[in-house]
Amino acid sequence: MFGQPFGSNYTDLQNHYMQQLQAMQQAQQAQQKTQPILDEINREVGSLSLDEQKVLAQMPEYQMAKQTYEAGFMSFLGTKFS
Hints:
The chain has helices spanning 7-46, 50-58, 60-80. The protein is an all-alpha fold. The two termini are 43 Å apart.
């Protein structure tokens, strides 16, 4: 009757906690991998002249990348603050 005072709920809680911890660690690792890429992109775009930046902004590839980034960012904000 009292063999497992916490029952399987305690084990389930531990497993759930470990899964959350692993997910957070994976997210941190992914963020660390992407940060240097973003820094490199910022440096490269920053080194372009104003005219070069305007031409780049009009390219279809740039427009698609910008829309994808903005949609992802808005989705992140929506889930973060909802």
